[in-house]
Design a protein that fits this description.
74% of the residues lie in helices and 3% in strands. By secondary structure, the chain is mostly helical. Helix 1 packs across helix 3, helix 3 crosses helix 4 and helix 4 runs antiparallel to helix 7. The chain is elongated.
Length: 174
């Protein structure tokens, strides 16, 4: 290898090390920011979703879920059930947005979730285009609740003051 080739290789090695150092610094800062703010943003965004979706149910024909609810829950009076469900969801939303009464908020969410997935069993014709994988838009609306349930589990794991950390504990065997 020529002397100029060695110099270029050394320059490339040095550039790679500088890039790696820069990347690690940025990655650490971004990861730290996510650990510091992620749970709060998750909690507030869940609150907005629940409050918004609940509020839509208070205005006739505004919620995309209204027809699905009407066609699935035929054994309850809709003039009472829809406003009840709307307010229930809005209470969940306010709980998440404020971060107060998180245990009660998550409990209300878990009580509400069986109702949201009930069309899968009560009216599968409204949920599937082709069982078990082809979903209608309403079916997709229901399946996305898996994300909300998982997010509630993550938030529930922090009600005793826990949180996210950007770095693992050192020296702890797990």
């Amino acid at each position: 290898m020529k002397c100029g080739g060695k110099a270029q290789l050394m320059q490339l090695t040095q550039l790679r090390k500088q890039y790696q150092t820069w990347f690690n610094r940025v990655d650490w800062q971004v990861t730290r920011w996510m650990a510091n703010h992620g749970l709060t943003l998750l909690r507030i965004s869940m609150g907005v979703v629940f409050f918004w979706f609940g509020a839509l149910k208070l205005i006739p024909n505004l919620s995309p879920a209204e027809d699905l609810i009407r066609q699935s829950i035929t054994f309850l009076p809709m003039n009472l059930f829809l406003p009840f469900l709307a307010i229930w969801e809005m209470i969940i939303g306010v709980g998440f947005i404020t971060g107060r009464f998180m245990r009660a908020t998550i409990f209300l969410l878990f009580l509400q979730m069986p109702g949201t997935i009930s069309p899968i069993f009560l009216r599968p014709d409204l949920v599937f285009t082709q069982f078990p994988f082809g979903l209608t838009l309403e079916g997709q609306y229901i399946v996305k609740n898996a994300v909300l349930i998982s997010a509630a589990l993550v938030l529930g794991a922090t009600v005793r003051g826990g949180g996210l950390r950007s770095e693992p504990d050192e020296g702890i065997d797990r």
